[in-house]
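Entry 14: structure prediction run for Tim44-like domain-containing protein. Input pasted below.
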Amino acid sequence: MSSDDIHLPSALMGHSGHAFPWDIVVLAILAIALGFRLYRVLGRRIGMQGVRQERPPVFAAGGQASARPTPPPLPGTSQRGEETVVAQVEYDIPAPATRVGSVLGRMTQLDAGFTPQAFLKDAENTFRQIVPAFAAGDRAALSGLMTPETEDAFLSAINARAEAGETQRSDLRGIESMAILDAMLPTDDVAAQIGRIEVRIVSRQVNMLTDRNGDPVQGTDAVTEFHDLWLFERQFGTSDARWRLAASRPA
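Run finished. Output tokens:
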């Protein structure tokens, strides 16, 4: 529709020379009416409209597609949808000005990749592996986590437990803190320098020993706080940078 097709009433045409712009008012009314009609016809679809996309089928055993595909679990959740929360472990590291801190500094000079923070993280992982493996009598899982002498002592305890028909239950519910209490470099021979670090570990466990009849021998099925002293050892100057458990005892 062009402007030539618009015919104003004669009364308005007679007053078109006056100051009030009646022609603009009429054009505005027509524009509003036209816009309202377009709105009703086209609707309110603004922007790019989504296109429905079908999920690809998930194939089960036998090559047949599953009727209801199940999306993978989100990060931080288990297969049942339960959120897994890992509590932050408190690390206690001596200040560099202390005697223990100075020994840790010498260890850093022997191995540029060594830091007390990284050591405690490795010690934490080792603790989380050894506790359940010893309770289950998993000899393969214990291999390489300890010095040979300490590993022999743990395996002897597992054998004695099996002969007596006893069962060890150790559920590690959490680690509260890990603190470096001592650090040692016993020899001055850089080529065969052995480092030792003693750590106090505070953890929460369900720890109970039962006999062949299932009766409790030691411990309880309640969550208990444990304080342990673990001594870790490694030899500097070699390609093997892993710290192994050399001794353990209650704190």
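Notes: Residues 118 and 171 are 25 Å apart (CA to CA). Will compare against the previous run tomorrow.
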